[in-house]
Amino acid sequence: MNDMTAHHPSLPIAPVLSRASFSGAPGAAGGARPPSVLDAGQVRMVTSGRVAIALALRQMGVRQGDEVLVPAYHSPSMVPPVLWCGATPVFYRVGPDASVDLADVAARIGPATRAIMVTNYFGFPQQLETIRAFCDARGLQLLEDCAHCFFGEHRGKPVGSWGDYAIASSMKFFPTYEGGALVSARHRLDAVALQPGGLGFEAKAALATLENSFAYGRLPAVRALLRLPMGLKDLAWRALKARRSGASGTGAGAALAPASSDSGFDFEPRWVDKRSAWFSRAVMKLASSRRICTLRRRHYLALEEATRGLPGCRPLFFTLPEGVVPWQFPLLLDDPEFVFARLHAAGVPLVRFAHARWPGVDAGTCANSSMLAQRVIAFPCHQELRPNELAWMAGQLRQVLLAQAVAA
Ligand SMILES: *Cc1c(COP(=O)(O)O)cnc(C)c1O
């Protein structure tokens, strides 16, 4: 088992900037650009998905004393925006495949219920037309959470088209340091006025993206070019921070970028009305969406192929339908702790979505959420994985699943 602890360069868990980010899809013909949530309606580019949730709830008029239905299978980052509005989250159940349990939702609707948040997990749309009809029949506003599906279509329409409002998270699909989107196919967003995040924020968004890229061996020529300026940057950084803390009057010195960019679950009201950085928006505009969609689907299918027929596991979703652009490859495991420990030790990046949930949300709230949070391990399939990185990860996965079968 010594091979499990051998040294490997760990792979980027999320997209990192490379020269290829701006090239077209390999081997893909022309044709229509793949649809994204930004095609669903009017758009506001903000600094994170959770900020977009807060703005959506504010636009809905959600306030003190209201209730918002939130899936028990969730990222803890989805809850603070509800509290920020003064509302109470009410958690509803999902099925064993993470589908919305509408019977349970119906049972939890009360006089104070204003809205429901519905997540298209891992990039796979829910039964959105059924959910939309359900909301219309009961006067509920629908917030379509597209944090896992920046791209894709469902029944001929872009994802995000069903909600009164939809939200997306840029960092999960693009090599950017920050970013989120508020979208509405049904309401005007004219009243949502955003302010720039400031010079320090703009600089941080660009430099942090480059540094993350360099950390994974991308853009070596740019790195060489920037060696001296990056050294000077640390000095400039300290000076800037010192000036900010002096000027802010609070003494503490506000951070240059939101905590959401550093993979925390915090929610900072100060970033609610801020526009996404220029650099992030430029990267999103210049990146090839066809390449993102083609490679994510290809990588997903490669991981599915690598695990096919192996004991103790199956993909959470049985097929990858046309029009779905996956966030990650979710695998349902019989012995997740064994697999997690081995792969983690080998340096394979993995995500256990909803492993941490909002305090009080447990198996009593929703047995399926607890089961999924425990048994699903998701693997990156993003467009910036290199062929050798993908092959290495698939090999590690096969090896551990076979070892698990022997150990069982
Ligand atoms: C990541 C995530 C969010 C929040 O997005 P951020 O950009 O991290 O704020 C919302 N919903 C789901 C399901 C997520 O996974």
Automatic annotation (TrEMBL):
<keyword id="KW-0032">Aminotransferase</keyword>
<comment type="similarity">
    <text>Belongs to the DegT/DnrJ/EryC1 family.</text>
</comment>
<dbReference type="GO" id="GO:0000271">
    <property type="term" value="P:polysaccharide biosynthetic process"/>
</dbReference>
<keyword id="KW-0808">Transferase</keyword>
<feature type="modified residue" description="N6-(pyridoxal phosphate)lysine">
    <location>
        <position position="172"/>
    </location>
</feature>
<dbReference type="GO" id="GO:0008483">
    <property type="term" value="F:transaminase activity"/>
</dbReference>
<dbReference type="GO" id="GO:0030170">
    <property type="term" value="F:pyridoxal phosphate binding"/>
</dbReference>
<dbReference type="InterPro" id="IPR015421">
    <property type="entry name" value="PyrdxlP-dep_Trfase_major"/>
</dbReference>
<dbReference type="InterPro" id="IPR000653">
    <property type="entry name" value="DegT/StrS_aminotransferase"/>
</dbReference>
<dbReference type="Pfam" id="PF01041">
    <property type="entry name" value="DegT_DnrJ_EryC1"/>
</dbReference>
<dbReference type="InterPro" id="IPR015422">
    <property type="entry name" value="PyrdxlP-dep_Trfase_small"/>
</dbReference>
<protein>
    <submittedName>
        <fullName>DegT/DnrJ/EryC1/StrS aminotransferase family protein</fullName>
    </submittedName>
</protein>
<feature type="active site" description="Proton acceptor">
    <location>
        <position position="172"/>
    </location>
</feature>
<keyword id="KW-0663">Pyridoxal phosphate</keyword>
<dbReference type="InterPro" id="IPR015424">
    <property type="entry name" value="PyrdxlP-dep_Trfase"/>
</dbReference>
